[in-house]
Specification:
Elements: H1 2-29, E1 48-50, E2 57-59, E3 64-69, E4 78-80, H2 84-93, E5 94-99
Length: 102
Protein backbone atom coordinates (compact mmCIF):
# COMPACT_ATOMS: atom_id res chain seq x y z
CA UNK A 1 0.00 0.00 0.00
CA UNK A 2 2.86 2.35 0.80
CA UNK A 3 4.38 1.64 -2.61
CA UNK A 4 1.24 2.78 -4.46
CA UNK A 5 1.25 6.04 -2.50
CA UNK A 6 4.93 6.57 -3.38
CA UNK A 7 4.26 5.84 -7.07
CA UNK A 8 1.44 8.39 -7.11
CA UNK A 9 3.65 11.07 -5.55
CA UNK A 10 6.52 10.32 -7.90
CA UNK A 11 4.14 10.21 -10.87
CA UNK A 12 2.68 13.59 -9.92
CA UNK A 13 6.11 15.12 -9.43
CA UNK A 14 7.27 13.78 -12.80
CA UNK A 15 4.16 15.16 -14.49
CA UNK A 16 4.70 18.54 -12.85
CA UNK A 17 8.34 18.66 -13.95
CA UNK A 18 7.40 17.59 -17.47
CA UNK A 19 4.68 20.27 -17.58
CA UNK A 20 7.14 22.96 -16.49
CA UNK A 21 9.72 21.89 -19.08
CA UNK A 22 7.12 21.85 -21.86
CA UNK A 23 5.87 25.31 -20.81
CA UNK A 24 9.38 26.72 -20.84
CA UNK A 25 10.04 25.20 -24.27
CA UNK A 26 6.80 26.63 -25.65
CA UNK A 27 7.50 30.04 -24.16
CA UNK A 28 10.99 30.07 -25.61
CA UNK A 29 9.77 28.99 -29.03
CA UNK A 30 7.14 31.71 -28.96
CA UNK A 31 4.12 29.45 -29.25
CA UNK A 32 2.57 30.75 -26.03
CA UNK A 33 2.93 34.46 -26.76
CA UNK A 34 2.59 34.48 -30.55
CA UNK A 35 5.99 36.03 -31.24
CA UNK A 36 9.00 34.59 -32.99
CA UNK A 37 10.64 34.04 -29.61
CA UNK A 38 10.17 35.35 -26.13
CA UNK A 39 13.87 35.96 -25.64
CA UNK A 40 15.47 36.38 -29.04
CA UNK A 41 15.88 39.56 -31.02
CA UNK A 42 13.66 39.89 -34.10
CA UNK A 43 16.81 40.23 -36.18
CA UNK A 44 19.34 42.92 -36.89
CA UNK A 45 19.22 45.26 -39.86
CA UNK A 46 21.41 44.49 -42.86
CA UNK A 47 25.06 45.28 -42.18
CA UNK A 48 24.74 44.66 -38.44
CA UNK A 49 24.96 41.61 -36.22
CA UNK A 50 23.41 40.60 -32.91
CA UNK A 51 25.19 41.13 -29.61
CA UNK A 52 25.52 38.50 -26.89
CA UNK A 53 22.53 39.88 -24.99
CA UNK A 54 20.27 38.93 -27.90
CA UNK A 55 18.77 42.43 -28.01
CA UNK A 56 21.28 44.92 -29.34
CA UNK A 57 22.97 45.09 -32.75
CA UNK A 58 26.35 46.46 -33.84
CA UNK A 59 27.55 47.33 -37.31
CA UNK A 60 29.98 44.97 -39.03
CA UNK A 61 33.33 45.14 -37.24
CA UNK A 62 31.75 46.26 -33.96
CA UNK A 63 32.92 43.97 -31.20
CA UNK A 64 31.84 45.82 -28.05
CA UNK A 65 28.68 47.76 -27.28
CA UNK A 66 29.09 50.38 -24.55
CA UNK A 67 25.66 50.31 -22.92
CA UNK A 68 26.39 52.96 -20.32
CA UNK A 69 29.18 55.52 -20.89
CA UNK A 70 30.02 57.35 -17.66
CA UNK A 71 32.43 59.79 -19.37
CA UNK A 72 30.04 61.01 -22.08
CA UNK A 73 26.42 59.87 -21.80
CA UNK A 74 25.79 60.77 -25.45
CA UNK A 75 28.15 57.89 -26.36
CA UNK A 76 26.06 55.30 -24.49
CA UNK A 77 24.76 52.60 -26.84
CA UNK A 78 27.82 52.99 -29.11
CA UNK A 79 29.63 50.08 -30.74
CA UNK A 80 33.41 49.92 -30.87
CA UNK A 81 35.92 47.89 -32.85
CA UNK A 82 38.66 45.85 -31.17
CA UNK A 83 41.57 48.31 -31.04
CA UNK A 84 43.89 49.20 -28.16
CA UNK A 85 42.56 52.77 -28.02
CA UNK A 86 38.94 51.62 -27.96
CA UNK A 87 39.64 49.01 -25.28
CA UNK A 88 41.37 51.63 -23.15
CA UNK A 89 38.38 53.99 -23.54
CA UNK A 90 35.91 51.22 -22.72
CA UNK A 91 37.86 50.26 -19.59
CA UNK A 92 37.93 53.87 -18.40
CA UNK A 93 34.45 55.06 -19.33
CA UNK A 94 32.09 52.19 -19.95
CA UNK A 95 30.36 50.90 -16.84
CA UNK A 96 28.45 48.24 -18.80
CA UNK A 97 29.82 46.57 -21.94
CA UNK A 98 28.22 43.85 -24.05
CA UNK A 99 30.21 41.56 -26.32
CA UNK A 100 29.11 41.81 -29.93
CA UNK A 101 31.76 39.77 -31.67
CA UNK A 102 30.79 38.29 -35.02
Amino acid sequence: MKNRWLYRIMGSASALILGILVSVALLHSGLLNGTASAFAHDGCPDGTHECSDGIHCCPAGGVYDCVSDSCDSSKSRTCYTDTDDNLQYLNQCCSQTISCGE
